[in-house]
Amino acid sequence: SGGGDAPAAAPPAVGPGLPRAEALSLIDVDDEGAFAVNEESAQILAGIEGKLCVVCVAGLYRTGKSTIANLLADAHGKRGNFTIGHGVRRCTRGIWLWGAPVRTTLATGEPCTIVLLDVEGLGGLEADGHYDTRLFALAALLCSTLVYNSLGAVDEHAISNLAFVANLTQHVRITEDDHPGEGDFERHFPAFVWVVRDFALDLEDERGDAIDANEYLENALREQVGFDAATAERNRVRHMLKAFFSERRCFCLERPVLDEDRLQNLQAVPVDELRPAFLRSFAELREHVRAMSAVKRVRGRAVSGRTFVELCRRYVDTLQSGGVPTVATAWEEVMARECARARAEALETYEAAFATHEDVEDDETLLKTHRDAAKRALGAFRAQAGGATFESSLGELEAECLQRLETRRAANFDQSAKACDALCARLHDAEIAPKLGSAGDRYADAAALAFDARRVAAMYEKGARGPARPGRLAAYFSGRILDAYRVLFDANEDAHHKALDAAEAQARGAAQSLARCEEHKKAALEQLEVLRAEVVAVSGEKMRVEAQHKAALDRARTLEGEGDALRRRADEAHQDLEDARERLESEQTWQAQLHARLEAAEVEKGETSSRLAELGAALDERRRDEAAARAELGEKREREEALKAELADAARAAAAVAAQLRD
Q1: Nearest Cα to 51, choosing from 349, 393, 383, 288?
Q2: Where do the H-state alpha helices sit in 464-516?
């Protein structure tokens, strides 16, 4: 009463990649048996966040497998579901997906999304054992719970239908080093749920004691006694089933309806009209699938929607290349891609932490933000990445975060230096520069300049920001403040020279007064001694000022040398600017030439389009001429046939006349 066939009628169209309640192909199979991942289904699965429980329904074709899949999906009798066929041939190929995965919480408390798959019916007239084994192996690798559907009972016939399972070791490997028949399969194969449809037996053992469905399955899988080849083969199938599927459950479902006609068209029977006993048994199955299914894991790590799609691609690519799917190799390839993607997303997380920063920050702020951002980025990476490349990728991520921190610190320092220099310039121009050149408000002495310098430093400390703040203040004091002192000292030296000249003029006047006024000689001599004492004091002050002047000249020569170096650097920067301008002009010239070529290409394109239109018109006219010629040729052939018929009639008439003449 049904296998996994294509949906006959789809629900209203939904955008590609969006979940929707209909059956969609996940693994396409063409007429040559080639597998391919369906991209639309891959987009739906890749959009699922968190853990997955992948439930796959498999079984012989025409055993009611798709009915079970539809009931598990709550899609029985709905448009777009897994369609049920009634003939002896399979209508579809590959593995199908129910396009609306269900969010649930398992009995373990883990939140997950249940993904339901329906596998093409096995054992069809068109298939062979090799194809069925490959398809079943792919389904077993992809799912975490395998629901196997059969009819009647778990008897020798039902078990023999799974004989191909004994050959799975030829189609699946756990690691590259595995040899056929080896490998830890049970850790990577799904839980096995055997659903027996149309079950009508009493659940009891050989002694007549009541047993449950699980005991019934285990009794059926016990090895048989015997040493002949047939018994050995039957026991081999049982052994491999138990070896591959260490976790096994069984559910026995009564016949859903008694009427044979309704059974053949079960899709049209509403759920509430199915037999209550069937619904009770199925409710137990659905509860087990939705609450007790295991999370899909590979090598101990839970699979997300995106990694599940990548696993599908790896397995399918291996099958298409003629190889044997290897769990470890496929997983490491998936994890390598996940590591690369997780590293890129972690760096985005790291960069986002700096989005709210201002243009200039203190080093401590940058370091704190770096520590917090790196912690979040590494945490996000650890949550998503894994595999053999995890440690190396983690180290590369840490190194990249540190490198970006150093780059950001260097840029921040440059911005801080520019802002601090600009602040120093504004404060100097407002507070100090006006008092260096103005005669009315000029500094009286160095103490006044020092006072203003300390006041400027205090204002600078309030307004300056960033790691360059102390260094740029020191550069300001060793530069412009030192120059201000030099200007002040030069001005004071001029004042001392003027005082000395005035004292010498007074001495000359006193000597003249002494010659004219001999009678006042004694008083004049005393006054002269006083003046000489003043001259001595002024001379000492002059010597001190000259020493200061010499020191200032030495400092000026040093500053002049530094100025020459700065002018050379400015000349070099000017030359670099001129070179950059020349390169820019060359680039603009090239762009103009390219634009001209593009315009010429557009003109040529228009001419070509016109020529193509003319050729198309000529071709249409030629076709019309050919059609007319063919019609004329047909008419000629018809006339030729008519002439042939007339000649034949004439020949027959001549023959008749000849016969009469002979008679």
Answers
A1: 383
A2: 469-476, 482-516
